[in-house]
Design a protein that fits this description.
By secondary structure, this protein is an alpha+beta fold. The chain contains four helices and six strands, in the order βββαββααβα. Helices cover about 35% and strands about 30% of the residues. Strands 1, 2, 3, 4, 5 and 6 form a six-stranded antiparallel β-sheet that branches. Helix 1 packs antiparallel against helix 3. The radius of gyration is 15 Å and the shape is globular. The model has no long low-confidence stretch (mean pLDDT about 90).
Length: about 140
């Protein structure tokens, strides 16, 4: 039977306040594999709470949330105007609380890459390759 084929569900794009125009952007991809489905739901709810703050998150161009429920995986694809915005976000008290609350309840992977300009299709294709690769 084997591992089921990934079924990635993606949220709508949520814009941030930064407008990239033709400037380079930094893309961050997170991938959390929960130990059980209860943790998966809790992490997804926490991600939705953070997503509500996106329109006022300095340096944020935008983001998608994603989930692969059969594999107990979820995460985000975030696009930033620069490194500073990403660092400030990851240091925010609400983000730090979430990371600490779920430490040890699953496995977290992350990656980032700079793109010369923001192309939503290219960014999602990059993220999807990371999300669906065997690990």
């Amino acid at each position: 039977m084997g591992i089921p084929r990934p079924r990635i569900l993606r949220s709508r794009w949520k814009s941030g306040p930064a407008i990239p125009l033709d400037d380079p952007v930094l893309v961050g991809v997170t991938d959390f594999t929960a130990h059980d489905h209860g943790q998966l739901l809790a992490v997804a709810r926490a991600g939705m709470r953070l997503r509500r703050t996106w329109p006022s998150t300095p340096g944020a161009v935008g983001m998608w949330l994603w989930v692969d429920p059969l594999r107990r995986r979820s995460g985000s694809v975030s696009v930033w105007a620069d490194e500073r915005g990403l660092k400030e976000f990851t240091g925010r008290p609400d983000h730090v609380r979430i990371v600490r609350a779920y430490r040890g309840r699953g496995e977290l992977r992350s990656a980032r890459r700079e793109f010369e300009e923001f192309d939503p299709d290219a960014v999602w294709a990059y993220a999807l390759d990371l999300i669906t690769e065997e690990h």
